[in-house]
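User: quick one
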Amino acid sequence: MAAMALFLNIAAPSSASYPVLHKTHLSPPFLLPLRHHPTASTRSATKISASLIDPDGGRLVELFVRESEKDSKLKQALGLPQIRLSKIDLQWVHVLSEGWASPLKGFMRESEFLQTLHFNSLRLNDGSVVNMSVTIVLAIDDVQKGRIGSSTSVALVDQNDNLVAILNDIEIYKHNKEERIARTWGTTAHGLPYVEEAITSAGNWLIGGDLEVIEPIKYNDGLDRFRLSPSQLRDEFARRNADAVFAFQLRNPVHNGHALLMTDTRRRLLEMGYTNPVLLLHPLGGYTKADDVPLSWRMKQHEKVLEDGVLDPETTKVLSMAPGLERLNILPFKVAAYDNTQGKMAFFDPSRPRDFLFISGTKMRTLAKNGVNPPDGFMCPGGWKVLVDYYNSLAPSDNGRVPEPVPA
Amino acid sequence: MAAMALFLNIAAPSSASYPVLHKTHLSPPFLLPLRHHPTASTRSATKISASLIDPDGGRLVELFVRESEKDSKLKQALGLPQIRLSKIDLQWVHVLSEGWASPLKGFMRESEFLQTLHFNSLRLNDGSVVNMSVTIVLAIDDVQKGRIGSSTSVALVDQNDNLVAILNDIEIYKHNKEERIARTWGTTAHGLPYVEEAITSAGNWLIGGDLEVIEPIKYNDGLDRFRLSPSQLRDEFARRNADAVFAFQLRNPVHNGHALLMTDTRRRLLEMGYTNPVLLLHPLGGYTKADDVPLSWRMKQHEKVLEDGVLDPETTKVLSMAPGLERLNILPFKVAAYDNTQGKMAFFDPSRPRDFLFISGTKMRTLAKNGVNPPDGFMCPGGWKVLVDYYNSLAPSDNGRVPEPVPA
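Assistant: Done. Structure below.
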């Protein structure tokens, strides 16, 4: 059953600057329409020949060196200046190498960096525009810059000095940190974990270039089996004959309000004429709030929810950020809340507001932390137990403070 | 001769967030290509049938009420809640009313505000995208919001309570000041005059809507004759049979380095096959640096430069910000500096850097303030005299401080 749930963990800051024009209590599901979808005038709903929309830039970028070239690349790297990657840098290599940030072929050069900050998008050589709202950059300090000198390539190594990738045709430019922070988050307030960890303390230069990645990035944390690449996900969608893919992203355990929204979206897609819409359930990795449930526990909880049949595992997957937002259909939906009269999660009815109980993520976590059960019908018992187990697993800290946020 | 120089004064912050990918010592001239320009394959340079490129959105927006409707609008306004415009608000009504911000039909609603902050552009209903890098908004406070109540229109009045415009189909939304500042300027540092004057101290709400403007905005400062509308400029370009329009924007007096750049650009346009390129010389109005020469004096200086024949008045105009940057050709140029060996402004030759003297705007102003002449050939004597006259006209302040910045 677990194999049905496919998870991804990327380092994108959880508060990254996606402009959300329609704010709701819950993240909206994104619908990724497949290329050929039924319309009344063109075809009947029973004759759909579907394929996924193209990746941004036309083709999926994958940046791995061929098996036959590995030895020569390892040899070449020995003669290059080295940059040691931080944990977050390595996660970005992961993102870039599998094509999550297509059409980027490596860490951003200055033109891409500035376009991302100013336009949240990139203009490609053919004049087309793709969404790009988060800068994907590699910072170096003055000493590293000095060591690189006039070399046009550098070797990127992990914390154990193992070669991860070669960065070619490099461009070094100013890391204007305040501008980067202000334009990405719309604030320069202190306390943003990604800013403090990956920007403020980083070097004053950025180095862009084209990546050649030696091996797929693995984390060896027991979760690698959930981390499918875009290419693997595309194969899986094709295998399942999905004619629409819709995504739900969340940083909390899944409760029955989420499940209601997802199930209802699937119903609406079927009504629209799609025959096999597949859900991609995406738990946010990377930085989350300090008191959030860690990714590994949320994944256990997600698996339990799938096991308990709240979501249909045959139509459920888990995914990451999707570039190319323009080609997404946003399906607006009503807010879900706990309806005391029905004893279950339902769409909020503004004509009888007193009947509804809003249980925020914070409230849910507080209940679980204190061993208090939520109202019946809020979450399947198996899923709730995972949450309670997580809080029981925490060693009581002597000052009662919540743990510091860490990239999951 | 003065009638040849056409000036505009708008309230756009001088440090507004235009991403400048190629930084130079001087503002780059923008070339506004006309619709039909010669290419080797399609036509000879002598058979150009030219027209200006379309305004953003397809047609030039003008927001004035018809003469025949004025009385009924004045009567209607009597029954509406009133908002008193600040000096800067009124300048934005000027910008909007004449179509400088086409396709905007009034102060931005939230969707336009957010698109401007996040994308520096607006997506129109037909899917096309236009450049929009500065938010054009009207702030109100809690009391004003309360007075508006459920009214769908408001009357905008000047400092003397004269009706300026009616704002229809209004939308009131949150004025997220920190985000606006951070995303527009890329910094939240204190001391930006426009921020302090027009944002920080402004109300916590923004009100968008469609404008109906009663009369063209006039400033009665002796400079109105220089303020041509886009429509008037277009007529003037047509009258002169311009087949290319190139613009030069500056906030300093024009010196011979500027003149060299402008003359050289014209030469290159003629080489490209244009037969009648017209220059739009645009002195920045609005906020400039505290120690800058005020607009009125710069305009006197510009007129003198035209009189002295440094620039050809027949091919010179003065313009404001151009929306639709995508359709502009950017002609890169070399840096101009004072060449001691030639005794004149010339393009910097990196092979003999010691021969060149860079005279910055600050240095130029300091020389004029202290009555020291610049090197011969830096500026025509008549233009320089205007500058010196300006500094002589300043009453010595008792603490020696430069005057505070004010919108010109």
